[in-house]
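In full, the data:

***
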Amino acid sequence: MSSFSTLMHVALSLLTTSTVLLAPAILPAFPQPSLSITSGNTTGSYYAASSAIAKIFNRKSADYEIRIETVASEGSVVNVDSVVEGKAAFGIGESIILQQAAKGMGPWEGKARTGLRAVLGLHVEAVTVVAAADREIRHVGDLKGKRVNIGAPGSSSYEYGANLLELSGVNPADVTLSGHPAALASELLQKGEIDAYIYTVGHPNLSVLEASTGKRKVLLVPLDKQLIEQVTTRNPLLLPAVIPTSFYPNLERQGVVPTIGVRAVLFTRADVTEETVYRLVREVIGNFDLFRRQHPVLQDLTPREAADGGVIPLHPGATRYFREAGFAQ
């Protein structure tokens, strides 16, 4: 990790509560077997949420004789395949991506992933357009003629970035697109190698903080109100959202940044044991205030939202706990 990235890790910790968790809950030399959560890149909210889940569960790892560990990945699409193929026990993915997988759409055209099961609803991910202030990008349409990174193939940022450009009337031929991992985007922007990047992520996150703290001034580009209404009316899984700029005091422009959001979901396979999932959900919901304090992206989450699996069925272990707690029928 560069010294610049290290400074940003320290800076973000100062913006959050003393119990903020940004490192994975992985410790060596434990005798217990491990179950992994495939999450996202280390600058994003998937990684932070996964680490928070692992931290809460692992307080009881000696009793349960099993640990949870966080694994970095490129995001939702890759996570679905990792869980289905047995490479990970759990994954985090956006509800609309899970819907596509369950129905055999998008990357899974004709190959429905019917064995996916929801465990916990998590935070809302926001479609975030980070742009260099010196490139006069005030609306998504201004990305024409610019160099834009939309994330690595297999990430939800890649999917949403391409769709956002199309919906905004930006022809792929009119932009120079790149598919670098989102974790590299802030550095590329500061080096002048790209003019903007699109990142679907919860806030706050290290990528935007890194980008906004460099010498090159940056801003967050709002989505047009008409586009937000059009998209969210068409698909109820997409939500109107706003990005809180208060976490990024060095942005060129402060204030409300309207955009589109989608809920993240912790999911697993149907064949993961009921008792394992039950225990995980019980530990998180039973210690919900502590869980939400692990990272600001989790602070607005409610138990009711956590009990909503959305577009795929809840795992029996999750259903069992939520019924006991009065959050599900």
In short: Residues 1-28 have pLDDT under 50 and may be disordered.
